[in-house]
Specification:
Layout lengths: L22 H17 L5 H23 L6 H41 L4 E3 L8 E2 L16 E3 L4 E5 L3 E3 L13 E11 L5 E2 L4 E6 L4 E3 L1 E2 L11 E2 L3 E11 L5 E7 L7 E6 L1
Helix pairs in contact: 1-2, 1-3, 2-3
Amino acid sequence: MSQYTQQPQFPQAPVPAAPARNGLGTAALILGIIGALSGLIPLFFWLAGILGLIGLILGLSAKGRVKRGEATNKGVAVAGIVLGLVSLVLSVVGAVLTFKAVDEAVDEINKVTSGSSATRKPAGSDKPLEKAKDGEDATGKALAAGDSAAYDDDLTITVSGPAAWTPGEYAIGHTKGHKAYKVTVVIENAGKEKFEAALVTAEARAGKEGVKAEAIYDGKVGEPFTGTILPGKKVTAVWAFDAPADAENLTVEVSPGFEYNASVWDLKL
């Protein structure tokens, strides 16, 4: 009998494998999706930048785990990296657009608060323009027929002398016993930006007492300016006004828009 008794051999249970550490990849994907969506929303560029940066870092860390065999979600990690980069790009684009919009808004506010100073340019004169206020010339007098009011943005408005005119049977704004006069208004855009002509308004007063002269609409006469005036272009309109029979002058005031001072013409009848 053998001195040593052989012990029976039992198979050992396999050591369980460590669970995959896929959390970083999943987090990177979620943050990348939220960041990309935030980048599409105005004023949320800052959130897209933060989430994109965190998602990118987590995605790179998750990809490292995949290489070491600690994680199995390589596709999720790569998607998180890509979306993180997309979020960062959208964040930069959003910041640029936001700051540009703010600058433009500030410029518009400055224009409104400061106003545009009108200058007088007598018809047929090559003399330097004289700075003026509200369409008046350097002496404080209104512009005369044929004079032009030029603005800081190179917008020029010219009003012709009044011409006697007989309204049609169905004209609107004419009073029986009064006289009607029509003037030609020319707007020239010599600036670099387009001009919205639909904002142009006009009113008139007649005689020494400054009685309101009603605008007359008769077919094409009296139609307002419409549309956009491109740089280097001009438009012309004919306006008509109703004045008492004994009026000797017609004061026409034209305003190019909310951001401009009105210009005034004193026209002899």
